[in-house]
Each structure stands twice: as structure tokens, then as C-alpha cells.
Amino acid sequence: MTAELATGTGLERIDVMRPWLGEQEVAAVAAVLRSGWVAQGPKVAEFEAAFARRQHAPYARAVSSCTTALHLALLTAGVRRGDDVVVPSFSFVATANAATYVGARPVFADVDATTGNLTAATVERALTRRTRAVVVVDQGGVPVDLDEVRSLCDPLGIVVVEDGACAAGSTYRGLPVGAGAEVAAWSFHPRKVLTTGEGGMLTTRHQAWAERARLLREHAMSVSAADRHASLLAPPEQYTEVGFNFRMTDLQAAVGLVQLDRLTEVVRRRRELAATYAAALADVPGLRPVADPAYGESNFQSYWVEVQRGYPLDRETLMAALAAAGISARRGIMAIHRQPAYADAGLRPGALPVTERLTDHTLILPLFHELGEAEQARVIDVLRRAGRRS
Ligand SMILES: Cc1ncc(COP(=O)(O)O)c(C=O)c1O
Fold first, then answer.
1. For ligand 1, is residue 111 a contact (CB within 6 Å)?
2. How far is the CA of 386 from the centre of ligand 1 (A)?
3. Of the candidates 84, 77, 70, which has an alpha carbon nearest to the alpha carbon of residue 184?
4. Of 56, 330, 102, nearest to 204 (Cα)?
5. What are residue 365's phi and psi, to 5 degrees?
6. Active centre residues (catalytic)
7. What's the mean pLDDT in 193-211?
8. Distance in Å, CA 242 to ligand 1 centroid
9. d(Cα 2, Cα 17) in Å, to the nearest integer?
10. In this structure, is residue 341 part of a structural domain?
11. Are residues 305 and 370 in the same domain?
12. Is residue 297 over pLDDT 60?
């Protein structure tokens, strides 16, 4: 990718994220185009099988996004109108929207200050008589302590759905994140470590849930479009319930297969860059970088730092200082309960104190596969110089 100058600075712009795409992806897409089958077909099936293997998941179903995967996850888990679904507010809005789509009420829980994730304690405080499911998120790639949340929820018959949108390549207790989930959802948006342009995946350990997800993503049609095409005398199809078009295309899946092959290498590089940031910022008072929890390893999909009181600048002024140096950082993860769309949750300021603190005081630093040493040194230089009290 050609370097772009940051407006008004004369400096090469450093983005917060750049997807790592190359000639292999171009060749994979060209091969699909030449094959004449560009919609959901053999490449999608191949990508599903490869992803299931990589994630230690018995079943995988490719879909159009993580948002649609979450929607299907809740439907297949039996969540419906009148149910409550506990979700973190500290997440992208899609986590809560999925509950709303199925007619359930998202109930916002607070997160742990170190990981930014739900814990059994924060979930327990949000449970109601109607809680049918909990959606845990591996926020920014940091694994959630799934076993802990499941030991609270399993005996109560509450389904734990894992929103692994950010977490392909992260590990939990030595296994890929999501391996222990009843059902998990994944994102392949370009902001994530593995991209198909747009795209998502649902993984599950339940054959029946996988089967229903397969049907629902394709209009609940009893014979798939690919099977109909394969037979000369197409069998009549039935629409068994009201389904959706949540399909992934073979063009996307072909890109996904190439990206999946590179996942280990991408995560190794991201962890190396994260370690460089951590070492360089260790003696800067008031900047707390995200770190691995004791029980797992992050892919550092989002490398955030919390700007605390001991730092001379607040988050907004630090972001402005970075921008003046041609560096694009991002405000940290949103707090969904503060958005107009969820005003009816009726949560007052201070209701979710950790979420609100992290949302207001964190920023995400540039971290991507091709981030060069000199570029990272420029980011570090701004953070360290701004951190010196004048
Ligand atoms: C935690 C989380 N869940 C869900 C999503 C939605 O993913 P997609 O854009 O693939 O629908 C995102 C995207 O940023 C996310 O970060």
C-alpha cells in the first residue's frame, strides 16, 4: 500500500489499522471469478471446514458478518421475545443489537477494568428472572474467562454466547478462543486480524444449532442454491420458516482461506509489536496498556492504553498531539448504554462505572502487520514526550 501524507503535517500518515492483503488474495479471487461460481458454494464450504479445524469447533457456518452470526446464534440458542440477554455495554453496538433483533431485551453489565470483559461477578449482578442468554465478548482480542462465566450460567440453564468478533488467533487456557463455547460468532471486517472484506462465521458444538443456522442463513430453504444448481432436475424446495439472506460469497471465502493460512504469522507479529509498545511505555506514569490476562493470550486486535490521572494530558489532548504528528489513534470502545438507540435502557451516568471510565479514558494505538519499526517509534516518541511534565 502506498504511503499517504497526513493532511497539514508533511508527515507520512500512520493509520490505526491496515489490512494485510497481497497477491495471493488477488489470485484466489481471480480463480473464483474464472470458475463462474461466485455466490455461496464450494469455497465457502472449504473455508468453513478450515476455520472449524483452526478454532477447534465441531461446526462452522459462514455468514455475511459477525452481526448476522450473532443474530443466528441467539435464534438457534432459542432466545426470543420477552427474554433478557445480558451483554457488555463496553462493546460495538452490534453485540446488543443482536438481542434486540430477536425481540429480547439487552441488559447491560459492567466489565473488569483490566481486561474490559464481563466476569461472573458483573454478569451475576445483571441477571433477572427472564435471563435466557449472556453474550460475552473477547474485547479487542483479550480472551474472556469463559469457564468462570459458564460455571455461573450453565447450572441456571442460561446459554453463554461468545462474541469472538475481535478474537481469531487469541487463546484461552491453551486453546483457540471459542473452542469451549456452545456457540460463538466471528467477524472478518477489515478492522479485524483476518478479513474477507465483510464477513462472519458462526461456530457451535451443537449439530442441531449448526443445521438451523445453515437453513436460516439461506431463507430457510430446504434445498440450497448450490445443490439446486448441481442437479439437472432441481428438486422442489420448501421454505420451512421465515429465514434470511445472510450468505457469504465464494469470492469472500477464497480471501478468507488465504488469510486463515496467515493467521498464526499475523498474530505473532501483532504480539511482537504489542510487546514493543509495552516495554517502551512501562516507565511512563499514567499510561496503562492492555495486557494478556493470566489465563490466555490476546491477538491484540485493538491495542488500547488507558490515560490515567498521572499522565499530563487527557485522552482528547493526547489524541490531538498524535494527530498533529500524522498519527491516527481511535477513542476506545464505545459504551452502548449511552447511545440514543438504547436510551430506553434508562441507565443513568455512573450506572456502569468501569465501562464509562474505560470508554472515556482509553485510546487505541496503531497496530497492524506491516507497521514498521520507524513508524512505531514515531508513535512511541509522541506518547513519551507528551508524558514528560513541563
Ligand atoms: C465485539 C464486536 N461484535 C460484533 C461486531 C460486528 O462485526 P461485523 O462488522 O462483522 O458485523 C464487531 C465489529 O466491530 C465487534 O467489535
1. no
2. 32
3. 70
4. 56
5. -95, 155
6. 192
7. 98
8. 24
9. 14
10. yes
11. yes
12. yes
Distance of CA 231 to the CA centre of its chain: 38
Question: Does 127 reside within a domain?
Answer: yes
62 and 71 Cβ atoms separated by less than 8 Å:
no
Amino acid at 206: H
How many domains is the chain partitioned into structurally? 2
pLDDT tens across 131-188, in order? 999 999 999 999 999 999 999 999 999 999 999 999 999 999 999 999 989 999 999 9
Report pTM.
0.96
What is the pLDDT confidence band of residue 225, given thresholds at 50, 70 and 90?
Answer: confident
279 and 255 share one domain? no
Clarify whether residues 281 and 367 are in a common domain: yes
**55 and 127 share a domain?**
yes
Same domain, 46 and 175: yes
Q: Which three cell numbers stand for residue 170?
A: 487469541
Q: Quick one: 235 and 267 in the same domain?
A: no
Instruction: Say which amino acid occupies 24.
Output: Q
Query: What cell was used for 102?
Result: 430477536
Pocket perturbation via mutation, ligand 1, pick of 16, 65, 66 by most ligand atoms within 8 A of CB: 66
At 177, the amino acid letter reads: V
Residue that is last in its domain, among 203, 235, 261: 261
**Confidence at residue 11, expressed as pLDDT on a 0 to 100 scale:** 82
Structural domain boundaries, residue 291: 263-387
Let me know if residue 12 belongs to a domain: no
Within-domain flag for 4: no
